[in-house]
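Predict the structure of Transcriptional regulator.
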Amino acid sequence: MDKSIFDITFQNTDTVSKIVVGLERISEAFRALLWEYAKTIGLSPIQIQILIFVAYHKEHLCTVSHLAKEFNLTKPTISDAVKALEKKGMISKHKTLVDSRSYFIVLTGEGKKTVSATEHFANPIRTQVAQFDQEKQESLLSTINTLIYKLNRTSILSVQRTCFGCKFYQKNKEDHYCNLIKTTLSNKDIRLDCPEFEESA
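Done. Here is the predicted structure for Transcriptional regulator.
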């Protein structure tokens, strides 16, 4: 039977376990910062995340179905959060042309103000990462991109929009290439969330 990564004796002798536990600690920092902002404005963390997501993504991604996949939550959970945001006057629902029963979410003026007040909640983490030299930043970005892609391919993450999973992405020996913009990409050019992303077959 495999040893648990949370077994301290084993963890201290296993590099992979240390990395996984380290990622857990970083996710805790992210959640703690988000909760801190949520408490000050009377919203839940997922409501803040929905508002920020809607602010920066195309309307076809701003539906209850997609948001449930995006945040790995159930449709009823997202639907409840959306209803609460609508009640607070922060979003409005627009029916889709394809199906009159479905709708996409749009920010109101109040919603945009809330995004402006909350969207920088993760800046304390950014500040620390910004202190790494360029080589470390690019190495970390490459590792994160690859990990997200692999977690998606094993169905642990429902959604990913990294270059590695896009139909326009091509690997030429050591180089990355985007067939949409016809450009060679460096490691730092690889995107985590590309607006032109189309999933590869």
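The first helix runs from residue 8 to 11.
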